[in-house]
Design brief:
This protein has 370 residues and is mainly α. 72% of the residues lie in helices and 4% in strands. The longest helix is centred in the C-terminal third of the chain and has 27 residues.
Length: 370
C-alpha cells in the first residue's frame, strides 16, 4: 500500500459536485460498475417495495432478515475485509443486542424507553467487551486472537443458556413490543396493504439498517479507514509510519461490535423473541463469514450482495427443490438428489461453486468486468 493510501481523502472526494449528493451519501465510494450499481438499486427498491408487492408473512420476514444480515455482514467486513482481523466472537455482540432489548422490554415494560435503555446498555457492554478482548488479545498472532474470540463467544453462549432467570435459558424469551409496532396498531390502508404496526416495524428495521450501513461506509472511506487498510496490507510498515496499530485495531473492533449489537437488537424487535440459537449460535458466525467472502471482502457492497443471496437461498431453496423433486418423480435418482431434505447439501455446493468462480467475491468480479 502506498503512502497515498494513508493520506487524507482528496478534495474532490470531499466536496460535492453537481452529482455529488449521491457521492456524498456513499462517501465517494461508488460501486464503480454499472452491473453492480443496477444490482444494488434492485435490492434497495425490492426491500422498500416488498410489503406492497409481495403480500404474506414470508416475503416481508425474508426482507427484514436480509436488512439485518446486511448490517451484520457489513460490520464483520469492517474487521475482516478492511482490518484483516479474523474474529469468531462477532455473534456474541449480535446476541448482546438481542438480549439487551428483550430483557429490557420484559422487565421494564413495553415502552420505547425500555427499548432505548436496553439498546444503550447493550451497546455499553459490547463496547467494553470488545475493548477488553482487543486490549488483551490483539497483540498476539492472528490465529491465537481467533482462538481467544472463539473461547469467549462459546462462554457467552453457555452463560445465555444457563442463566434462565435472566435470559430464559435454552427456551429464550418472548416479549411484547411498544404498541406502535404491534400488528393490531392500524393507521390506514395504502395500495391494498394495511399500514399497521408490523409494517412500521419492518421499515424501522430497513431504515436503521440502511443508516448504519451508510455510516460504516463513511468510516471505511475516512482517513481512519485508510489506516485500517494500511494495517491490513502491512502492519509493520504502518507502525513504522507512526500509527499505533493496536489502538486502531481496538477501535475497529469496538465500532464493529457496536454495529453488530444494533443488528441483534433489530432482529429481536422483528421476531419479538431472542434465544441462544437465534443470535449466539456458531452457525450464524459461519453464515456471516460466507456472506462476506461470497460478496467480496473489503468492499462493504459485498455484504449487501452476499447477505441478500444467502438469505434468499436459505428461505427459498428448499421450496424450489420440493417443486423440482416433484417434477422429477419419473427419474428416481434425480428426484432423490433434489429432495428438499437435502437443501443444505445443495446450498453448500452452490456457495463452494460461487467462491471458486468468484475468488475476489461477486463485487470484485463485477468491478473487473466493467
Amino acid at each position: 500500500m502506498t503512502d497515498a493510501a494513508l493520506s487524507p481523502l482528496p478534495t474532490s472526494t470531499r466536496v460535492p459536485t453537481q452529482s455529488g449528493f449521491l457521492r456524498a451519501i456513499l462517501s465517494a465510494d461508488t460501486p464503480r460498475s454499472k452491473a453492480l450499481s443496477l444490482l444494488l438499486i434492485v435490492i434497495l427498491l425490492g426491500l422498500i417495495a416488498t410489503p406492497f408487492a409481495l403480500p404474506g408473512s414470508q416475503p416481508i420476514g425474508t426482507a427484514a432478515k436480509i436488512c439485518i444480515f446486511i448490517l451484520l455482514a457489513a460490520s464483520y467486513d469492517l474487521l475482516l475485509g478492511y482490518t484483516g482481523i479474523v474474529s469468531f466472537a462477532h455473534t456474541m455482540f449480535f446476541g448482546i443486542g438481542g438480549y439487551g432489548v428483550a430483557i429490557a422490554l420484559n422487565r421494564l415494560g413495553t415502552t420505547w424507553s425500555s427499548v432505548f435503555i436496553g439498546l444503550g446498555l447493550a451497546l455499553l457492554l459490547s463496547a467494553a467487551l470488545a475493548f477488553v478482548i482487543g486490549l488483551v488479545s490483539l497483540r498476539v498472532r492472528a490465529i491465537f486472537f481467533s482462538m481467544i474470540t472463539l473461547a469467549v463467544a462459546s462462554a457467552m453462549l453457555v452463560l445465555a443458556s444457563q442463566l434462565s432467570g435472566i435470559t430464559g435459558g435454552e427456551d429464550g424469551m418472548s416479549f411484547q413490543l411498544p404498541p406502535e409496532l404491534r400488528p393490531a396498531y392500524r393507521i390506514t390502508t395504502l395500495f391494498g396493504t394495511a399500514i399497521n404496526g408490523r409494517l412500521l416495524a419492518y421499515y424501522l428495521v430497513l431504515f436503521v439498517a440502511l443508516g448504519m450501513f451508510l455510516l460504516l461506509l463513511r468510516i471505511v472511506n475516512s482517513p481512519f479507514g485508510r489506516v485500517l487498510q494500511a494495517i491490513r496490507e502491512n502492519e509493520f510498515r504502518a507502525e513504522a509510519l507512526g500509527y499505533r496499530v493496536v489502538a486502531y485495531r481496538i477501535a475497529a473492533s469496538v465500532i464493529s461490535a457496536l454495529a453488530a449489537t444494533v443488528a441483534g437488537a433489530l432482529l429481536a424487535l422483528w421476531l419479538r423473541y431472542n434465544g441462544p440459537d437465534t443470535t449466539l449460535s456458531f452457525s450464524i458466525m459461519i453464515d456471516v463469514l460466507l456472506m462476506v467472502v461470497i460478496g467480496g471482502m473489503g468492499t462493504m457492497y459485498g455484504a449487501v450482495i452476499g447477505a441478500t443471496l444467502f438469505v434468499l437461498a436459505q428461505s427459498y431453496l428448499q421450496v424450489l427443490m420440493a417443486s423440482l423433486s416433484t417434477s422429477l418423480t419419473s427419474i428416481p435418482l434425480l428426484a432423490s438428489l433434489t429432495h428438499p431434505d437435502r437443501w443444505l447439501l445443495w446450498l453448500g455446493i452452490l456457495f463452494v461453486a460461487s467462491v471458486y468462480a468468484f475468488p475476489g467475491g461477486i463485487v470484485g468480479r463485477l468491478r473487473k468486468s466493467s
